Amino acid sequence: MNTKRRAALTIGALIAPVLAVSLPASTASAHGWVTVPTSRQQQCAEGTVDCGQIKYEPQSVEGPKGLQSCSGGHTEYAELDNDSKGWKAAPVGTTATFTWHNTARHATSTWQYFIGGQKIAEFDGRNQQPAADVSQQVNFGGFTGRQKVLAVWNIADTGNAFYSCVDVNIGGGSDGGSGGGGDTCAAPAWDAAHVYSGGDTVSYGGHTWRAKWWVTGDKPGTTGQWGVWEDLGAC
Question: Which parts form a coiled-coil structure per UniProt (predicted)?
Fold first, then answer.
């Protein structure tokens, strides 16, 4: 009996590497997408808009660098390129904080943002590994009204990038659209790796937030009314 068991274990040990090589690397395809403002991938994942396969893998829109495509050139994610699909546009001011959620933290060359093929913002990744959540404050310049923002995460050590489209309504914020530049977020963008003290303010998701006490890593808007972040309203 012991001889048979040892033989089975030996065979299993020989087969396991073959299986590991032949199985699809589904977990290796996990990378990142924009969660705030709510991107098209996020709306698919949340069921806000009826989508296909992308609903189950919003992090996987990867393609060659230099594309101007919400789908990253993937036919199976073609819904993301369909502007008439009923995407919800997030009301924002003249600036907004964009947050990437990275399930695989690849070394980054740059983060870029485009409207209609025109680059409106770029952030240096310094060829370093980013945090799991990265927030950047993007200025929309002279653009107003409903716009589609293409957010691009350029990887440092490959020829590929990750793509995420976000529909926004610039100047259509819940602050009544009073105009006059009062809707610019003056506070710095929230940083998941930063240590904040009570009274510190940040911008996140088009709102200004104030820390009630010491905090690091807790995302504004996720801790509830009794949590650490106090919502000071749209900016």
Answer: none
Buried/exposed code over 22-36 (b: 16+ C-beta within 10 A; e: otherwise):
eeeeeeeeebbbbbb
Architecture of the domain spanning 185-235: Ribbon (2.10)
pTM, to two decimals: 0.64
Q: What is the pLDDT of residues 202-219, one digit of tens each?
A: 888 777 888 888 888 888
CB of 120 within 8 A of CB of 114? yes
CA distance 78 to 96: 26
Q: Tokens 């594309």 map to which residue?
A: 67
Tokens read off for 163? 């793509």
The model's pLDDT over 31-56, given as tens digits with 9 standing for 90+, comes to 899 999 999 999 999 998 999 999 99
CA 122 to the chain's CA centroid: 15
Q: Which residue has the tokens 């293409």?
A: 150
Cα distances (Å, whole numbers) of residue 112 to 11, 28, 199, 214: 50, 24, 31, 32
Q: In which region does residue 133 sit, left (phi positive, over 0), alpha (psi from -120 to 50) or beta (all else)? A: beta
Assign 8 to helix, strand or coil: helix
Instruction: Report whether 135 contacts 98 (CB < 8 A).
Output: yes
Domain 28-170 has CATH 2.70.50.50: yes
CA 29 – CA 57 distance, rounded (Å): 9
Pairing of strands 207-211, 32-36: unpaired
Token pair for 10? 């030996």
C-alpha to C-alpha distance for 65 and 91, rounded to whole angstroms: 29
